[in-house]
Amino acid sequence: MIRHRRTKIVATLGPASSSPEVIRKLFDAGADVFRLNFSHGKHEDHKATHAIIREIEARSGRAIAILTDMQGPKLRIGSFVNDAVMLTVGDKFRLDLDESLGDQRRAPLPHPEILAAIKEGTDLLIDDGRVRLRLEKVGADFIEGIVTVGGKLTNRKGVNVPGAVLPISPLTKKDRRDLDYALELGVDWIGLSFVQRPEDIDEARARIGTRAGIIAKIEKPAAIDRLSDIIERADGIMVARGDLGVELPLEEVPGLQKRIVRAARSAGKPVIIATQMLESMVRSPTPTRAEISDVATAVYDGADAVMLSAESAAGEYPVEAVETMDRIARQVERDPFYESLMRANDTNPEATTADAITAAARQVAETLNAAAVVTFSTSGTTALRAARERPGVPYIICLTPRRETARRLALVWGIHSVEVEDARNFADMVKRACDVAKHEGIAKDGDRLVITAGVPFGTPGMTNVLRVAWIGEESHPA
Known about the structure:
Strand content: 15-25%
CATH class of the largest domain: Alpha Beta
CATH topology of the largest domain: TIM Barrel
Largest sheet: 8 strands, parallel, barrel
Distance between the termini: 29 Å
CATH superfamily of the largest domain: Phosphoenolpyruvate-binding domains
CATH architecture of the largest domain: Alpha-Beta Barrel
C-alpha cells in the first residue's frame, strides 16, 4: 500500500477511535502515524490499541509509526471553598503555598518551583489565559498581583508563566512509569512535553536510549530561545501551537511555526504541525475554509507531518477528518507552485560526502525525471538526508533490514519504507531496488531510479555511493 502524497498524517486515537474497525478505517483513509496520548487512558487500554495497530501493519505490509505522548508536568491552582470565584479587573489576588481552600482573595498554588522562578512584573496566566494577573509582590511562600483579565475561576485550573524558565523536569513520576511501559510495548516515537531547554532532551535520552526517537514538543516560549540546541539533541520536533498560543500573543504563532519548520528541515529532523488543524470537524463533517488553508500552509512549508488531535480521538467524524487532510495534502502537492514554495526554505548541504551524494541524488533524479530516489539505510540516517533535500520525485524508497527503522521513518516526508535484507554487493543492491520499486507499484519497465547507499553495506551513517538504474527485464546501471 502506497500513499499518493509525501506529507504524512498523524492521527490521535481515543474514545472515538479505539476499535479495530475504526483504526483500520483511519489507516485506509491515510493515517501514517498513530498517536497514543498517555494523558488519558489506562496502560491496558494503550496495550490493546498498540496490538491492533501492529495487526493492521502485519496485514497491510506497510510500516506504521506509533507516537506516544507524555503528559508532562501539570501546574494547577488548588480548590475553592465554593468551587469557584468571580474575579474582576483591578482586584488584588494572592496565590500561596497554604493548602487551605481558596476564596475571593486567595487560592492555593502547590508549586514552590513557580515561586522560586517568578519575578515582580511578570504576567501569570490561569485557565489558558482566561484569567490574568500582573504580579506586584513575590515572597518566599506567596505571590500577589492585580487582575488584568477577569472572569470566573474554578477548581484546579492550569497555570502558565510565560516569562520564566521553571526548574522542573519534563518527566514527572507518572511520565516515568508511562515511558517505561511505552518502551516495553515497543513504540517508535516519544513525544516529550514541557521542553524548556536542551538538557530536558538529555534527561529523556538517558532513560530512552535508542529504543525510540524523541519528539520535542515546542510549547513553551523558553524553548524558542534555545531552539537550535533543542533541535540538535532531539530526533524530531512538534509545533504544539495550542500551548504556544496561550503563553505568547496569538499573532506571533504563525511566524514561529514557519521559523521552527525551517530550522527543523535545515537540521534534517522531522517536524509535525499540531493542534486544532481541523478543529471544527470534532462536531462537523466538513472543515472551515480557514482550517483548509491552515493545513495547506503547513504542507506548502514542507512540514513532514500534520496532526489530528481531538478530531480523530474524540470527534464525531474521525475517518472523515483523515480523508479531508489527505485530500488537502494531495491537492497542495499537485500545485505547480508547491515545489518552489517549499524550496524557499532549502539550505545548502554540509561539506560532507554523505550530504554531497544526497544533494547530487536530488539533482540527478529531477533531471532524469526518475520514478523515485532509493536509499539503503540501516539506521535511517541516509533516508533522513534524502528527505531533507525534498527531491521533486513522487517517492523516496527506503530499503532497510530493521523493522524499527522502517516504522520510525513512516513519520518522515516522502519516505516509503520496505523491510529487506542487506544488499550483498552492487548488483544485488540495484536488483533489490528495482524489484521493490516494481512490486510496490512505484515504477514500471523503462523508468529510472536514483540509488544511494553506503559501502561497506550495513555501516550506519555511511552514504558514499550514487547509482542510476533502469527498470526492465534486467537492471542496467547507467
